[in-house]
């Protein structure tokens, strides 16, 4: 277990970001569900039993980008102005942009704290590349092309990292988590996490800080790569497979590292453990563009080869005859081809809402591969966001309420597929992540709180640190 150092007056906050951590895993014991690990994680279990905890509802869409920025800026994706990693740059058909740090116009927690004269340590938070200055220290995220680029602030920090790791390169991510070589994947994940934890502990020990956050992406990667080997509800689950304990063992390792970090803290530091979204078994993929094509809503100039996956970007679309097209991913983005908006718009502007509503009802009525209701959920951006900036999808779709991935490629023999078009992937995201708050000065007795939202994290951090919460933040301070 961990000990606490002497008390000071100024309150600090440490956030451990476990990307993709699920309430079903962290909040349950093995006797309470097949995925429950709480009784195998003694350090995390103590934080839960003495703290405040509950499911943390993610943003819509519940994907890494924009979720971490939504959490730390306390703004919804519409207000932030990006809806995934890739976004339409304008209303043309071709131009797309990647939502790096350059896409963020709003202040995140550490920006506000820098203005208040407080020091931050920021490690691995998505959308922290390209690196921006702050008062403190920053190591960028998995969106960084390589450590050959500038990935730290200040610049000299990279040389300290080299010394901490004895010359080994720092790993921003695993090179390819969608692989059939699971042994290689596990080696990459464990090595990456071991390096990151060594650097986290070094910075917490050697640098002055008031706020610190690190995000471990390895948990997300091991879920996507090996979920079918662990979850008995997965359609591809095989009992007694050789990887059945790979995910629990990794959680146990994270818990040991968490215990070492907690042992470095004084009793002035409030600790949070959070995730940007949860995880659930992926039943399969729904070929959104193939379906739109078969419904006559997407028209191609020539048929793609059947049985040969062709990315949407490589097919020839007859835009003058096309009503809608979609993007693949953990959720689907549907775009309508509107007259006066898109270059060759087909839908008259006055029929836009009628067309959109009709397509929404078509999607909601879709059956699964067995003819049963799929249970897809369709969102209109203006109904879920405070405002809608830049080029939002016309519809956002959770196929099977996130049990099915959206497949954008064409050429499949059916609209249902059980192989991912971008490589092996066992899991999809779930709307609910986790929130745990532990204050060494107060035992909350494991208070369970429902109704928490991703955007509540940033104002809660500022409130603990006695920094005014900006009026444009959309979250609320979590009662303590």
Can you count the helices?
13
Tell me, briefly, the overall form.
Answer: globular
Q: Name the CATH homologous superfamily of the largest domain.
A: Alkaline Phosphatase, subunit A
Q: What is the CATH topology assignment of the largest domain?
A: Alkaline Phosphatase, subunit A
Rounded average pLDDT? 96
How many DSSP-defined strands? 21
Tell me about the largest β-sheet: 10 strands, mixed
Q: How many separate structural domains?
A: 2
Structural class: alpha/beta
Task: Report what the structure shows.
Helices cover 26% and strands 18% of the residues. It has 480 residues and is an alpha/beta fold. Strands 1, 2, 5, 6, 7, 8, 9, 19, 20 and 21 form a 10-stranded mixed beta sheet that branches. A hairpin with a 7-residue loop joins β3 and β4. α8 (218-226) packs antiparallel against α9. The longest helix is centred in the middle third of the chain and has 25 residues, at 182-206. It is globular, with a radius of gyration of 23 Å. Residues 1-7 have low confidence and may be disordered.
List keywords for this structure.
480 residues, alpha/beta, Alkaline Phosphatase, subunit A, 10-stranded mixed sheet, 4-stranded antiparallel sheet, 21 strands, globular, disordered N terminus
How are the elements arranged and paired?
Elements (H helix, E strand, L loop, with lengths): L11 E7 L4 H4 L15 H9 L1 E6 L6 H10 L3 H4 L5 E3 L7 E3 L10 H7 L4 E4 L12 E4 L12 E2 L3 H8 L17 H25 L4 E6 L1 H9 L19 H17 L6 E6 L3 E4 L2 E4 H7 L29 E4 L4 E5 L15 H13 L12 E3 L1 H4 L10 E4 L5 E4 L8 E2 L9 E4 L1 E7 L8 E2 L3 E2 L3 H8 L16
Parallel strand pairs: 1-8, 1-9, 2-20, 2-21, 5-6, 5-8, 11-16
Antiparallel strand pairs: 2-19, 3-4, 6-7, 9-19, 10-18, 11-17, 12-13, 13-15, 14-15
Helix pairs in contact: 7-8, 7-9, 8-9
């Amino acid at each position: 277990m961990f000990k606490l150092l002497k008390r000071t007056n100024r309150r600090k906050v440490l956030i451990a970001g476990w990307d993709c951590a699920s309430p079903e895993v962290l909040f349950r014991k093995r006797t309470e569900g097949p995925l429950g690990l709480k009784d195998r994680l003694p350090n995390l279990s103590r934080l839960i039993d003495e703290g405040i905890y509950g499911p943390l509802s993610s943003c819509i869409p519940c994907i890494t980008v924009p979720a971490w920025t939504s959490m730390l800026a306390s703004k919804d994706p519409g207000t932030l102005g990006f809806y995934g990693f890739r976004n339409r740059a304008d209303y043309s058909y071709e131009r797309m942009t990647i939502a790096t740090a350059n896409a963020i116009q709003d202040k995140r927690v550490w920006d506000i704290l820098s203005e208040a004269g407080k020091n931050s340590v920021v490690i691995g938070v998505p959308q922290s590349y390209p690196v921006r200055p702050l008062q403190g220290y920053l190591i960028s995220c998995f969106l960084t092309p390589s450590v050959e680029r500038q990935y730290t602030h200040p610049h000299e920090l990279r040389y300290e990292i080299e010394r901490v790791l004895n010359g080994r390169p720092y790993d921003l991510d695993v090179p390819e988590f969608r692989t059939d070589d699971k042994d290689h994947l596990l080696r990459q994940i464990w090595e990456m996490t071991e390096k990151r934890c060594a650097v986290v502990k070094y910075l917490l020990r050697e640098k002055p800080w008031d706020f610190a956050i690190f995000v471990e992406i390895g948990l997300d990667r091991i879920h996507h790569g090996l979920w079918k080997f662990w979850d008995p509800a997965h359609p591809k689950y095989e009992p007694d497979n050789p990887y059945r304990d790979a995910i629990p063992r990794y959680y146990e390792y994270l818990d040991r590292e968490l215990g070492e970090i907690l042992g470095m803290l004084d009793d002035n530091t409030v600790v949070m453990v959070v995730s940007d979204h949860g995880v659930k078994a992926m039943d399969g993929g729904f070929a959104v563009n193939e379906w739109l094509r078969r419904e006559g809503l997407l028209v191609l100039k020539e048929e793609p080869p059947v049985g040969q996956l062709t990315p949407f970007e490589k097919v020839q679309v007859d835009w003058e005859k096309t009503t809608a097209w979609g993007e693949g991913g953990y959720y689907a983005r549907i775009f309508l081809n509107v007259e006066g908006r898109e270059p060759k718009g087909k839908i008259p502007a006055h029929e836009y809402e009628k067309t959109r509503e009709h397509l929404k009802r078509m999607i909601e009525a879709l059956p699964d591969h067995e003819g049963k209701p799929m249970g897809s959920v369709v969102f209109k951006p203006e109904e879920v966001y405070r405002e809608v900036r830049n080029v939002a999808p016309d519809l956002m779709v959770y196929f099977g309420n996130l049990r099915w991935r959206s497949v954008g490629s064409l050429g499949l023999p059916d609209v249902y597929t059980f192989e991912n078009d971008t490589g092996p992937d066992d899991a999809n995201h779930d709307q609910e992540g986790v929130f745990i708050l532990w204050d060494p000065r107060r035992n909350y007795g494991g208070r369970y709180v429902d109704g928490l939202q991703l955007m509540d994290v940033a104002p809660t951090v500022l409130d603990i640190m006695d920094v005014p919460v900006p009026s444009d933040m959309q979250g609320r301070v979590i009662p303590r």
